[in-house]
Amino acid sequence: MTTRDTAAGSAAPPGWGRRLELLADRKFRYLLIVPTVFLLLSVTVFPAIYTLIVSFQDITLMAEDRSFHGLMNYQRLLEDSRFWWSLVHTVGFLLAALALQFVLGLLMALLFVEWMPGRQVFITLLVLPTVISPIVAGSAWRIMYEHQYGPISQIIGWLAELDNPVLWTADPTFVYPAILLAEVWQWTPFMFLLLLAALVNVDKSQVESAEIDGSTYWRTFWYIVFPAIRPVVAVALLIRSLDLFRVFDKVWILTQGGPGTMTELISIYIYKVGFQQFQTSYAAAMTFVVIILLTAVVVLALRRMGVSP
Amino acid sequence: MSGTTPSRAAGPAGFAGRKPWWQRDRTRRMAGRLIAVAFLLLFFLFPIYWLFVISIKTPDEIYSSPPVWIPDGFHLDAYIALFEDGDVQAIWNSLLVASVSTVLALLFGTMCAYSLARYRTGGIHLGLWIISQRMIPPIAIVFPVFLLYVMVGWVDTYRGLIVLYTTFNVPYVIWMMRGYILDIPLELEQSALVDGCNHWQVFVKVVFPMVRSGLFATAVFTFIFAWNDFVFALIVTRDAVTTFPVQITHYFGAQSTFWSKISAMSVLGTLPVMIAVGLLQRFLVRGMTMGAIKG
């Protein structure tokens, strides 16, 4: 190998040497990754280490005390019920949204698997909510939920006589359905698109022979189609879970975590502590705990994405 | 999407010998499916329609109960107000920051992806480490970055936001471009080397043209991620480089909410993305799943 390295240059020997030569230029391959590694080290790794250090101190807006306090912030975290509730909110929201998006997305995909007039145009139109900015989506739903001039109150008004208009994003009973609807609205098309891509690739001959053997639609789906699309389902669910864990923008614009702290997700709580109450060190500690909690999930996700086709 | 041909074949075959009434059954089934599609389109498009239509309504039409479902005419007052009050600066900021960071992320990312794909630099560990940077919640990334930016005085600057978006998108570009590079045959690069190109020339003259369409698709997605972002911009900007999603949130006031401006700004912020989706249909699935599903 070492002799090959010195020989690496413009004049490449013919035959078996070519592949080796291509793989052998060490300087070139490291030059290529220098900018990326530099960026990632300075903008993610260095700040992460700095955050860890800050989390052992007690920095707030009022007092920039640089002395170390050991695990003080972490101890406070353990006793902070608001933090644990925000985790519960996040996981509950994640599971509910994920289930709804998956079921609705799958039904939509099944609807679109076969040909119909205008199929491609409909698919493109249905995907639109997914690509618009979450802030735009959140604004759209805030206007929809407007209790005086919003269309939803009007439609409810047609169906039922109500004494008072429902304040969708401020009423403890309706706030979760409201933010879930907005979330499901925006991300179901993503599920739909992925599952449709998987369904279209399912081996048709197996499905047909099952139908000829008299299998019902759902039996065929469960025993033949579903096993075939399972890798895609796994990837889709993992991508959505990771995204749902970090939801901030849409819920922020709809409720800002309210009423009270009812819809305070973990991202929202960290934001409030770090950037509204300026308890820098405490926010740093929470950030670190979240990173550690998520690492396990991410590792799992990566393994999945690595092995899937 | 692999076109309509395979799915057209998805219908049960060999029904030709069945009784005539079946023909009617099939039509009925199609009609049922189309009705379902109509409901879906209504559900998924109405909020977008509603947001858009607010921007061309008169104030009387916006604040009317019952709501005005279809406005009388086009009133561009909201857009004129955006221009007169200088709020379009936010669109310009978004455009500048998203474009520059996209170009940088593509440049650095493609280089790194080539190294990973063809030389297996750093083995699987470097690749996994890079992509894991993308999966951490933005709030966890941006909090440390904010502390760093306060230290170096980069808060509320273009360079601060550009560097942040570039860093956040580079892992995505690497993962996508690695896949596209692995799709092209190694022989081309080998023969270019034999013909006397050096490594940089192979990269620029052979690899770049071959991955052009993948590069374009990745660029559009990278641009959309930066364009749509709210969390990063919210935290590292104040007012000088406010992007359009942050600007929208400024219109939600405690006393009054500027619906027409929210709406008009949203339209301006959504049009580029809609155009992009029209261009990108073929790449949507692969692009949205970091290449895990090739569609």
Task: Explain how this protein is built.
Chain A is mainly α and about 300 residues long. Chain A is about 75% helix and about 0% strand. Chain A is built from 14 helices and 2 strands; from the N terminus they run αααββααααααααααα. In chain A, strands 1-2 form a two-stranded antiparallel sheet. In chain A, a hairpin with a 4-residue loop joins β1 and β2. Chain A starts with a helix and ends with a helix. The N terminus of chain A is likely disordered. The radius of gyration of chain B is 25 Å and the shape is globular. With about 300 residues, chain B is mainly α. The interface between A and B is large, with 115 and 117 residues.
Shape of chain B: globular
Distance separating the two termini of chain A:
33 Å
Q: Describe the largest sheet of chain B.
A: none
Q: Describe the global form of chain A.
A: globular
Q: Main β-sheet of chain A: number of strands, strand sense, barrel status?
A: 2 strands, antiparallel
Give the integer mean of the pLDDT values of chain A.
Answer: 82
Helix content of chain A: over 70%
Q: How much of the sequence of chain B is in beta strands?
A: under 5%
Count of extended strands of chain A: 2
Strand order, sheet with most strands of chain A? 1-2
Overall number of strands of chain B: 0
Q: Specify the structural class of chain A.
A: mainly alpha
Helix count of chain B equals 15
Brief summary of the model shown:
Chain A is mostly helical and 309 residues long. Chain A contains 14 helices and two strands; from the N terminus they run αααββααααααααααα. Chain A has a two-stranded antiparallel sheet.
